[in-house]
UniProtKB/TrEMBL annotation:
Gene3D superfamilies: Fumarylacetoacetase-like, C-terminal domain
Enzyme Commission designation: 3.7.-.-
Annotated organism of origin: Nonomuraea insulae
Transmembrane segments: none
PANTHER family, sorted: ACYLPYRUVASE, ACYLPYRUVASE FAHD1, MITOCHONDRIAL
Domain Rv2993c-like N-terminal: 1-36
Domain named Fumarylacetoacetase-like C-terminal: residues: 54-249
Molecular-function GO term, any one: hydrolase activity
Protein name (Swiss-Prot/TrEMBL): Fumarylacetoacetate hydrolase family protein
């Protein structure tokens, strides 16, 4: 099943996508059960398909990405958070803040949690997974490098595009993850090259923080990171899952 959130005359509601791509309204919520209803119109505006209490991010989970910035490969998962206020959906604009001189997209597969869990063993971790979506860990690289913590460089409003849907039957074990800008493929990797796999990440995070339904884990970005400018459109794609596109605009534009 593919779960969506959509704008209904200013109210954001849950919905589902049929196998033929038809969008339908749905009653209930994804984590206790959705009941599909009537088909929606052709011009449905999709929103971010999750409402997490926290966005857990994993740094340097591809060895080649660590190397391209001259960083060592971590010996355990490198965890940071983005605020929920940074979330935008498919097609929304990403604002290039005036405080920064370099903005980088980071293509990522995103795990969506479906039930609460604390101190979950790796062998049981996949039971917490509801599904998967696509994310872009937008980063003000100069600010990230200047600050001892990454909160500001990673946490600006609009710095977490997510979508376009959550796929509950997706197999993430070996799929291609790319970021394309202006028709040029920049980032290109495969999830089989994760340093830390999804069960290990869930176990590591749940050892210190309770995971709740709707929380997301951004699993890290592949190599090829390069900056973007206002006017650029960033398209993050995960093989078999879909695409997420957002255009960069200058602050105040």
């Amino acid at each position: 099943m593919r779960i969506i959130r959509y704008d209904d005359a200013g109210t954001v509601r849950w919905g589902v996508l049929d196998q033929d791509g038809t969008a339908r309204a749905a009653d209930g919520d994804p984590y206790t059960g959705l009941v599909p209803g009537e088909p929606l119109g052709a011009n449905v505006r999709l929103r971010a398909p999750v409402t997490p209490s926290k966005i857990i991010c994993v740094g340097r989970n591809y060895a080649d990405h660590a190397a391209e910035f001259g960083n060592p490969v971590p010996k355990e998962p490198l965890i940071f958070l983005k605020p929920p206020s940074s979330i935008v959906g498919p097609g929304d604009e990403v604002v290039y803040p005036s405080l920064s001189g370099r903005l980088d997209p980071e293509a990522e597969l995103v795990v969506v949690i479906g039930r609460s869990g604390r101190r979950v063993a790796a062998e049981d971790a996949m039971s917490l997974v509801f599904g998967y979506t696509i994310g872009n860990d937008v980063t003000a690289r100069d600010i990230q490098k200047s600050d001892p913590q990454w909160t500001r460089g990673k946490g600006f409003d609009t710095f977490c595009p997510l979508g376009p849907w959550v796929d509950t039957e997706f197999d993430p074990s070996d799929v291609r993850v790319t970021c394309t800008v202006g028709g040029e493929v920049r980032q290109d990797g495969r999830t089989k090259d994760f340093i830390f796999g999804i069960p290990e990440l869930i176990a590591y995070v749940s050892a210190f923080s309770t995971l709740e339904p709707g929380d997301v884990i951004m699993t890290g970005t592949p190599p090829g990171v390069r900056p973007v400018q206002p006017g650029d459109t960033m398209t993050v794609a995960v093989e078999g899952l879909g695409e997420l596109s957002n255009t960069v605009v200058a602050e105040g534009a």
